[in-house]
């Protein structure tokens, strides 16, 4: 028991620099951009989102997951188009997305799905889904072909707005120098310091280091126990 405790204690001592990136995305459905934290997985829709395009194709899609409606167009298809009068269907991208910030500091994020069906001249279909932070109901606003076999879908939703921002605090002494009552924070750097954290600088009744990279340091991890 003592051994486990001192191991845990050692792992809690972090000395060095924790660096926060301006914008980052992980393999999930999250984005940290300009201090705003997003988790777009709240926009996942088991029944698929849909919109009828001016080209008379119905477009179906899901957020960061395969779309049930698109299963016929390919395993893991996240976005697809159907031409109803005929049974014409195309896979417009699979759920192996990249997530990036919107331009000009607009709140929300953009998902890019690649590896759809191949067009007649060899271009591989792909789709960008722009998720704009907005009030009111979640709405699919538009779909357009932005260039040959490349599609852009826009949607607006409160679920595309920033959620609990990582907290920053600095204090000079006292107890409980840093605390949060927010939800658990995963896959983001929430403590940034060019100084040091020493002694019992970090304590938790939760878990730390449940996957790789949760604690990073360019210094050492030190324990005197
Ligand atoms: C997902 O995309 C990444 C990078 O584009 C690629 O390395 C990986 O093999 C892809 N995974 C699947 C399951 O297609
Ligand atoms: C396919 O055609 C489009 C439109 O004419 C063109 O922009 C694109 O470069 C072509 N792609 C290939 C791989 O030839």
Automatic annotation (TrEMBL):
InterPro entries registered for this protein in UniProt: Man6P_isomerase_rcpt-bd_dom_sf (IPR009011), MRH_dom (IPR044865), PRKCSH (IPR036607)
Locations listed in the record: Endomembrane system
Residue span, MRH domain: 27-163
Keywords: Disulfide bond, Membrane, Signal, Transmembrane, Transmembrane helix, Transport
A GO cellular component entry from the record: endosome membrane
Extent of the signal sequence: 1-25
Transmembrane annotation, as ranges: none
Protein name: MRH domain-containing protein
Organism (species): Heterostelium pallidum (strain ATCC 26659 / Pp 5 / PN500)
Lineage: Eukaryota, Amoebozoa, Evosea, Eumycetozoa, Dictyostelia
């Amino acid at each position: 028991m003592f051994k486990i405790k001192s191991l845990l204690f050692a792992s809690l001592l972090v000395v060095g620099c924790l660096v926060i990136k301006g914008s980052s995305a992980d393999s999930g459905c999250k984005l940290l951009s300009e201090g705003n934290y997003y988790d777009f997985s709240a926009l996942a829709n088991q029944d698929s989102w849909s919109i009828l395009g001016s080209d008379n194709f119905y477009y179906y899609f899901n957020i960061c997951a395969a779309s049930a409606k698109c299963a016929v167009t390919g395993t893991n298809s996240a976005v697809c188009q159907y031409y109803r009068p005929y049974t014409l269907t195309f896979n417009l991208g699979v759920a192996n997305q990249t997530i990036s910030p919107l331009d000009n500091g607009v709140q929300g994020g953009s998902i890019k799905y690649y590896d759809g069906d191949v067009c007649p001249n060899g271009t591989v279909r792909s789709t960008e889904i722009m998720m704009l932070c907005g009030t009111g109901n979640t709405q699919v606003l538009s779909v357009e072909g932005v260039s040959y076999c490349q599609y852009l879908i826009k949607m607006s939703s409160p679920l595309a707005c920033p959620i609990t921002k990582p907290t920053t605090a600095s204090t000079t002494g006292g107890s409980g120098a840093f605390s949060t009552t927010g939800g658990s924070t995963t896959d983001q750097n929430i403590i940034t310091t060019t100084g040091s954290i020493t002694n019992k600088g970090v304590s938790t009744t939760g878990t730390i280091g449940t996957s790789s990279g949760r604690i990073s340091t360019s210094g050492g991890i030190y324990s005197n126990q």
